[in-house]
């Protein structure tokens, strides 16, 4: 009788969890929830990284490890130092002090294009697609400086032509994967904000990286493209890549992260799984600048006192899987955490349709 054949809810949900998620979460399950926690297989290890701007210490990270093959979110209030830390790690800025190793090789002071060659690429909060170049040319440009490419190789016309052809084929494959193939010949400047984010992510993959760093992938993205972007980030993990992303959208953080690292005033103040971190009084204090005793009741009360805490972008929140699947999993504190000034939007591009 068909009615007797029911799948227990737990088994059903386990079966639907992708292998990359299970791998990453299993690997992290015994990692202590504390700042600077050691990971079983770190792809990136940084020590004593300091960046000052005049009298302001924007970043002062004692120790941080990023687990290979996992999706790690780097969160924190505005001005916590997240983007500055990203800039340092990816060679777009130089530290005053500190060192870090990526795949075991020292990277401090290595310029951005060499960092990318070593397999660590990033996207930007404000997308960097070249508006007056076509989508395919933006992709091809992203393919220059690939791992294994050398000056001497480029001097041999046959090899150079073959490589150019390979780059174009790879670019076209990625455009298909990101559903941008119909836009191949269009100027990048004609894309919507969300499509630009997709293009930037696709372009980052041209160098076949081991680690992808995404700076606010959801900023300025309309709900229409939210699911697509989330799916693409998750698929990076399924492909064995490591993802570190900065994001203010707590629905996204909760939905896709295996691990969360929280920065406050330049330092790492908390680490753990999304649920534990979002309930951590240090995290709530850092965001809200208020003291409380850590109970859920108090957290909600504190959030309610924060101007704008209830004026979250409702359509976006409602469209997110985390929000719609379990409204109870999005307490008031979380909404306050996801509040972000409207002025912090990506430049250029049309609004998403
Ligand atoms: N080039 C700079 N010159 C001077 N101060 C800077 C510079 N870049 C960043 N800062 C300062 O360093 C601090 C950290 O900024 P950063 O942009 O890294 O923070 P963030 O956590 O990324 O913030 P947001 O979430 O708003 O993007 C801030 O006080 C910022 O004003």
From TrEMBL:
Low complexity bias locations: 315-332
Residues of the ABC transporter domain: 44-290
Source organism, top-level taxon: Bacteria
Keyword terms, alphabetized: ATP-binding, Nucleotide-binding, Transport
A Pfam family assignment: BCA_ABC_TP_C
UniProt region (Disordered), positions on chain: 289-353
One GO MF term: ATP hydrolysis activity
Biased composition (Basic and acidic residues): 290-300, 336-353
Any one GO cellular component localisation term in the record: plasma membrane
Phosphoprotein as UniProt keyword: no
Entry-linked InterPro entries: AAA+_ATPase, ABC_AA/LPS_Transport, ABC_transporter-like_ATP-bd, ABC_transporter-like_CS, BCA_ABC_TP_C, P-loop_NTPase
PANTHER family reported in the protein's UniProt record: CONSERVED COMPONENT OF ABC TRANSPORTER FOR NATURAL AMINO ACIDS, CONSERVED COMPONENT OF ABC TRANSPORTER FOR NATURAL AMINO ACIDS-RELATED
Protein name, as recorded: Putative ABC transporter ATP-binding protein
Lineage of source species: Bacteria, Bacillati, Actinomycetota, Actinomycetes, Micromonosporales
């Amino acid at each position: 009788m068909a009615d007797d054949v029911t799948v227990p809810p737990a088994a059903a949900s386990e079966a639907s969890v992708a292998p990359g998620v299970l791998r990453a979460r299993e690997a992290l399950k015994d990692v202590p929830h504390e700042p600077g926690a050691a990971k079983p297989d770190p792809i990136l290890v940084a020590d004593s990284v300091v960046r000052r701007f005049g009298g302001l210490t924007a970043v002062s990270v004692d120790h941080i490890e990023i687990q290979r093959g996992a999706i790690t979110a780097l969160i924190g209030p505005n001005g916590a130092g997240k983007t500055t830390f990203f800039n340092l790690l990816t060679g777009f800025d130089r530290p005053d002090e500190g060192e870090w190793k990526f795949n075991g090789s020292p990277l401090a002071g290595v310029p951005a294009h060499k960092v990318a060659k070593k397999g660590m690429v990033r996207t930007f909060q404000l997308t960097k697609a070249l508006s007056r170049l076509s989508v395919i040319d933006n992709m091809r440009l992203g393919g220059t400086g690939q791992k294994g490419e050398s000056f001497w190789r480029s001097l041999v016309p046959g090899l150079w032509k073959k490589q150019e052809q390979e780059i174009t084929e790879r670019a076209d494959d990625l455009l298909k994967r990101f559903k941008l193939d119909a836009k191949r010949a269009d100027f990048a400047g004609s894309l919507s904000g969300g499509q630009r984010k997709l293009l930037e992510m696709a372009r980052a993959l041209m160098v076949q990286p081991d680690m992808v760093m995404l700076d606010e992938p959801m900023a300025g993205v309309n709900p229409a493209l939210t699911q697509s972007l989330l799916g693409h980030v998750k698929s990076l993990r399924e492909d064995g890549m490591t993802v570190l992303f900065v994001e203010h959208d707590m629905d996204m953080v909760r939905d896709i992260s295996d691990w969360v690292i929280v920065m406050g005033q330049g330092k790492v103040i908390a680490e753990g799984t999304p649920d534990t971190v979002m309930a951590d009084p240090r995290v709530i204090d850092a965001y809200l600048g208020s003291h409380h005793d850590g109970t859920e009741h108090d957290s909600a009360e504190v959030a309610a006192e924060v101007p704008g805490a209830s004026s979250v972008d409702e359509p976006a929140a409602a469209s997110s899987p985390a929000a719609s699947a379990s409204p109870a999993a999005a307490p008031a504190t979380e909404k306050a955490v996801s509040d972000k000034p409207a002025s912090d939007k990506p430049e250029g591009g049309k609004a998403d349709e």
